[in-house]
Amino acid sequence: MAHLLLVESWVGAMGTLLPRAIADLGVEFTFLTRRPEHYPQSLPDGSTHPLRRGRAVVTAETNEPAAAIDAARRIHSDASVDGVLTSCDYYLPTTARIAAALGLAGPTPDAVERACNKALARAAFDSYGIPGPRHATASINDRAGLRAAVDAVGFPVVVKPTDLCAGMFVRRADDWPAVEAAVGELRGFETNARGQRRDSVVLLEEYLAGPEFSVESWIQGGVIHTVGVTDKRLGGTTGFVETGHMFPASTGDVERAALTAAAEAAISAVGLDHGVVHTELRMTSAGPRIIEINPRPAGNQITELIRLVTGVDLPRVAVELALGFAPAPVAQAVGAEAPPGRPSSAAVSMLVPTRAGVIARMHGIPEVADHPAVVASTFKEPGHRTTVGVDNNSYVGSVITVSSDPAGAGPLAETLLASVSVDYVSRSAS
Ligand SMILES: Nc1ncnc2c1ncn2[C@@H]1O[C@H](COP(=O)(O)OP(=O)(O)OP(=O)(O)O)[C@@H](O)[C@H]1O
Ligand SMILES: [Mg+2]
């Protein structure tokens, strides 16, 4: 039985999708983490959480690459490790370094480092002549430097951290006070959710107007296999919160080919040569422009949408690649007719709270859950404390739909979710 080392994990969807893929492949795993208590013991139905179903949970300081590599070597000498993987962005570079140290399959560590730092990625795209937004960097503590960077980019400017995810602290600023407010928020967030000290560099980018997409690919031996293009709905108070996705994106063949080519060029520019990659782009009036590149499977259930429509399970592909197996080639040409028994489109829609408060009750959930097009739905329980929807961590519910219409699942998911309403505990009662 193959043995996979799993280094930390997201707690959300990928925290169960990756262990499911590991189990489906009949692989056993050891879970390496600095804080086992960060992860739930059980699922809502009371069963053991899949992250705790491995052969062992080993504790080591994964925030220190050298300590993580030492721990991996110890585990490897106890029970030979055949592959190493993480789903959590904050541990992608360390995981690549562990794979290299143990001589296992994995992406070039420097490429992962570049992809995981939005400023380094932009520099790589520039050096390959990939067209992108005007951009500049500055220290959040250097007011004059910030002024100069903003002047170089021009308004509207997107202010974004180089080292976070889930849309955290990404803000559009139309004037200098808005830049100062965005940078001020960043100054107050010195350590990420996993206790890692943050980069004090902020990236300023030209605002790219246009609909947003993502391209899902996997790479082995430097060969890029693109599975397809997903579309993205945005909302929330920042306008940058992901509110839904549909696979396949309803685009024409020409647009799909342009998005795919742009993503593949970006993958080559950062030097990613192995693993599953999720590339985000906007289709501007001048053509596709890269937003960012992530050397891991897509989150927010996008991999489930793709699995429903094509049968390709990207978390499983990620496990196969980590173990050095050859994943099955992408069988279904994207845009081709769905194979029998499969839907032609699948979509997810997320409910973003419009205010901070405590949920008293939600209306319309049974009607959504029982709808024949709904594959899965989840909603927060009464008592859940909401935050205003400024990033992808604030959702209070989601629904996944399928449709025999290639453009049908997205609108259906949105309509169904719009029928759910939230009552909050009144302020006087709270
Ligand atoms: N230059 C830009 N122009 C327009 N919109 C942008 C730009 N940069 C980022 N955005 C918007 O902000 C969102 C979040 O930015 P980005 O993907 O870089 O951050 P993130 O925190 O890594 O997001 P996630 O982890 O959710 O993918 C993007 O999906 C996009 O909608
Ligand atoms: Mg992103």
User: What is the CA–CA distance across the termini?
Assistant: 53 Å
Strand content: 25-35%
Which small-molecule species are bound to the chains here? adenosine-5'-triphosphate, magnesium ion
Q: What number is the mean pLDDT?
A: 94
CATH evolutionary superfamily of the largest domain: ATP-grasp fold, B domain
Q: How large is the count of helical segments?
A: 12
| Structure summary, number of beta strands | 19
Percentage of residues assigned to helices: 25-40%
* Morphology call: globular
Please tell me how large the radius of gyration is: 21 Å
Low-pLDDT windows of residues: none
Could you describe the 3D structure shown?
With 430 residues, the chain is of the alpha+beta class. It has 4 domains: 3-104, Rossmann fold (3-Layer(aba) Sandwich); 133-206, ATP-grasp fold, A domain (Dna Ligase, domain 1); 208-337, D-amino Acid Aminotransferase, Chain A, domain 1 (2-Layer Sandwich); 343-430, ATP-grasp fold, B domain (D-amino Acid Aminotransferase, Chain A, domain 1). Helices cover 30% and strands 27% of the residues. It contains 12 helices and 19 strands. The strands form 4 sheets. The protein has an 8-stranded antiparallel sheet, with helices on both faces. Helix 2 (65-78) crosses helix 3 (92-102). The longest helix is centred in the middle third of the chain and has 18 residues, at 253-270. The model has no long low-confidence stretch (mean pLDDT 94). Bound molecules: adenosine-5'-triphosphate and magnesium ion. Adenosine-5'-triphosphate binds at residues 118, 133, 158, 160, 164-168, 170, 205, 207-208, 212, 234, 240, 280, 291-292, 392.
